[in-house]
Design goal:
Helices cover about 25% and strands about 25% of the residues. It has about 375 residues and is of the alpha+beta class. The protein has 2 domains: about 5-175 and about 285-370, Aminopeptidase, CATH 3.40.630.10; about 175-285, Alpha-Beta Plaits. Helix 1 crosses helix 3 (about 100-115) and helix 3 (about 100-115) crosses helix 10.
């Protein structure tokens, strides 16, 4: 079985979060030379496969891990083909999960299967709950590995990262995500007698320019500025003769390492100090970054250029991924995969050429990782 055959097989599993649909067992059997460990919790299956090469014992030499998820989002409507029966047309593979992220899985599984020598341990960490809450997914397996003294030194998550040309971008970090829920209390009244009411809409109007779309920091070499993005404002009774008694505003900040919840709260306190308000902040994920001179960044970049001829850029753009958990455990982590232009969309697709090239990049990286 080559990497394309493997991808087609993986795509045929209807692995909707958190159901792996039997795909993890198939992968375990396909990598029969690797030792398998399952840590399952809350209906989520997590699989860790590892192989130490030569006469070395586990813990001797470098531990390089490839990580990803077998689960996919629901297919939705407007597909031209059955989303769980992969179709190849003009060198393009169509199915749910082609980009996000079974192409990446196929590439690193095949690369690991074909590896005959490595100065240390190669491993694969897989979860069935990345597209869901991720509460019992990768983080649960990492906690187990930490308890066993088996955490990787380096990790590569094969999420789709390229922008327009295969090889043009890898991610060395991700921004965090902070959600804000702001309630401003006023006093409901008749629109004809505004002097008898306290209208929170009027109160917030001159303040909006101080919060809407403003940058909370200046960014740095790795991150764009952390921007406050207003996502919802509502108040009132949907009538024209009653002023609202309260107003609710929601916002999101994709924060860099330079902005924290506390700094956001201080900014809101400064802007709304004269009003009766309540603020709740929650953090869905925390920012992380792998140093640009890390071995895993250098070796991946070199391998991409050798296989594709493309000099890749280092990015922290986009949403979140399970790489955030690796960063929280102190593991040097990068992300690299096929072009990201149809994930979660109808007719999700990737090219055979990209999948084959991705596998070659991974094989090249493993071969030269310890040079």
């Amino acid at each position: 079985m080559n990497v394309v055959d493997l991808l087609l097989k993986l795509l045929s599993f209807k692995s909707l979060t958190p159901d792996d649909a039997g795909s993890l067992k198939f992968i375990e059997e396909y990598l029969d030379g690797f030792e398998a460990t399952y840590v399952n919790k809350g209906g989520v299956k997590n699989l860790f496969l590892s192989k130490t090469f030569g006469s070395k014992k586990f813990g001797e030499g470098t531990h390089l891990c490839f990580a990803g998820h077998v689960d996919v989002v629901p297919a939705g409507d407007k597909w031209d083909t059955n989303p769980f029966v992969p179709v190849i047309k003009d060198g393009i593979i169509y199915a749910r999960g082609t980009q996000d992220m079974k192409s990446g899985l196929a590439a690193f599984i095949q690369a690991c299967k074909e590896t005959e020598t490595f100065d240390g341990t190669l491993s694969i960490l897989l979860t069935s709950d990345e597209e869901g809450e991720a509460k019992y997914g990768t983080v649960v397996m990492l906690e187990h590995l930490k308890e066993q003294g088996m955490l990787p030194d380096y990790c590569l998550v094969a999420e789709p990262t390229c922008e327009t040309v295969f090889g043009d971008a890898i991610k060395i970090g991700r921004r965090g995500s902070i959600n804000g829920y702001l309630t401003i209390e006023g006093k409901q009244g008749h629109a004809a007698y505004p002097e008898k009411a306290i209208n929170p809409v009027h109160q917030i109007a001159p303040i909006l320019e101080k919060i809407a779309g403003i940058n909370l920091d200046n960014g740095d070499d790795n991150f764009a500025p952390s921007q406050m993005v207003i996502t919802d404002i509502r108040g009132g009774m949907e009538v024209t003769n009653v002023t609202p008694g309260s107003l609710k505003l929601m916002f999101n900040v994709r924060n860099s390492t330079k902005t924290t919840q506390n700094e956001i709260r201080m900014h809101i306190d400064e802007c709304f100090s004269d009003l009766d308000y309540d603020l709740e902040l929650t953090q869905g994920s925390y920012p992380f970054v792998t140093k640009r001179d890390s071995k895993v960044v250098a070796k991946l970049s070199e391998s991409i250029e050798k296989i594709t001829g493309v000099k890749t850029k280092l990015s922290t753009a986009g949403g979140t991924s399970d790489a955030r958990f690796m960063g929280a455990f102190g593991i040097d982590v990068v992300e690299f995969g096929v072009i990201n232009d149809s994930i979660h969309a109808p007719n999700e697709h990737t090219s055979i050429a990209e999948v084959e090239a991705l596998c070659e990049v991974f094989k090249e990286m493993v071969k030269n990782f310890n040079d």
